From TrEMBL:
Record-linked InterPro entries: TRAPP14_N, TRAPPC14
Protein name: Trafficking protein particle complex subunit 14
Domain (TRAPP14 N-terminal) ranges: 1-130
Coiled-coil zones: none
Length: 130
């Protein structure tokens, strides 16, 4: 979403599949450099002709910064069925604006670093979401 000219993303983390408490250690949003920049159709095929301008060079690995606040401090503990929202701001390199109405699409991946006391031999787990 865009608010007052700032590009923001909200990432909701929900502990829905665990009965024990989870410790959220880190949350990041990164550009998915392994994904196709063309939209995928419901059947899994890639649409080859579209009217969206696919620009990717402006979004680097550090473009999404988590907005730090008291409510978003890490690590964060999540009990069963608890959720936590994280706010990110997109920082783009200065790109000259043109007068086109074409969109800006970048496939993203969310990386969640977490742990639980039920897995004592595992320091942390990284889970990736597209």
């Amino acid at each position: 979403m865009t608010v007052s000219g700032k590009h923001l993303a909200v990432l909701k983390v929900l502990n829905e599949s665990s009965q024990e408490e989870l410790s959220i250690r880190d949350v990041r949003i990164l550009p998915n450099l392994n994904a196709s920049y063309l939209p995928m159709m419901p059947d899994g095929s890639v649409l080859l002709v579209d009217n969206v301008c696919h620009q990717s060079g402006e979004v680097g690995m550090a473009s999404f910064c988590r907005v730090d606040s008291r409510a978003c401090r890490l690590p964060s503990m999540l009990g069963a069925l608890e959720e936590h929202d994280f706010l990110f701001q997109l920082h783009l390199n200065d790109v000259p604006q043109d007068d086109s109405n074409e969109g800006f699409e970048v496939p993203l991946v969310a990386v969640l670093q977490w742990s639980t006391t039920k897995m004592p031999f595992t320091n942390c787990i990284y889970t990736h979401y597209r």
